[in-house]
Amino acid sequence: MIDCKINAMVLLTISIAFICDAKTSRCHYNLNRVKQLVAHCENQGFTLVPRNLNNTIQELDLSNNMIKTLENGTFENYSILEVLILNHNRISEVHIHAFVGLPYLKVLKIRDNFINITKLSTRVFSPLVNLTTLDIGRNAEQSPVNKSFVYPDKTFAALKRLQFLSLDLFMFPEFGDGFRSLQFITVLNFDRYEIIESTQNFSLDLNNNALVCSCTTLDFLLWLTKTPVSFVNGNTYTCTMSNNSQVNLMEVTKDIKRYFADCNATVWLRIGIVLISCIVSVSIPLSIVYYYRWKIILFMFRKFRRAVERGLHVNYEYDVYVSYEERSITWIKNNLLPKTEQEWGLKIC
Fold first, then answer.
1. Assuming Cys at both sites, which of 50, 178, 225, 250 could form a disulfide with 24, CB separation 3.0 to 4.6 Å?
2. Contact assessment for residue 229 and residue 204, using Cβ atoms and an 8 Å cutoff
3. What is the mean pLDDT of residues 6-21?
């Protein structure tokens, strides 16, 4: 009886191991443009991060799975990983040591999940000493109504080499002194914002900001026109236009149509360029096929003939049989025979 139980336990263990291996085997590998090994594990239904992948991978894509928790030591086996993509999962819990063992990680994308950044440990990003890109936008709803949203500056302060940061922008945001340590930031992207139209007056401090008035910041400028905002230093703020000229910010917001009339034109220009590129990319191959159409037809004919000969166990001496009347013999000798036998390489009977 004991032996039966032991055998059953062994069989169960083997079955579980087989199931796990079957899941991870659905990941496939390739080399990226710089010859780094990439593991593609997207859309595989994983509920946990697989830990038995090839440990020499430098990029891991786990997008569109059902992962809910990043446990401590989840990525310890992938010590040379440089790019980690966890977009479109159900992650709501990130343990304090989840990213331990990733000293070379440069890119972390964890957007479209359920992470509340205010609940992240202040040490969760500490192991990521070489991280340059962090995309943690489009996550859980975190903004208290009509209250300031204080960003967890100490959590992000550990990322000394960060250059690109994508966050959600909430109503009445407050950024602490910890963000001052991010001295290499070149792009701060607010992918989703909850700055809503408000009937309440509130002040906006834009000191020491290099404001740019362009098509990319048009949404922010439109918000200024719809929301009762008072600036801390009055209406003295200026912004840089696309021609590098300095214009008073309030003047720009009062005449949006005049300053940004070409924004829609730019969009249509991009659409036109894409359409032309698609037409060119399709027409060139079609032109090549049309130009060589006879050679392609002859190539297919020879393939078909060989298949027929093998099937019938015969070897035909001629390729073409021509039936004609006496009035056509001159055209056949002067035109058809040279074209068929000399140019096309077919033998006429």
1. 50
2. yes
3. 36
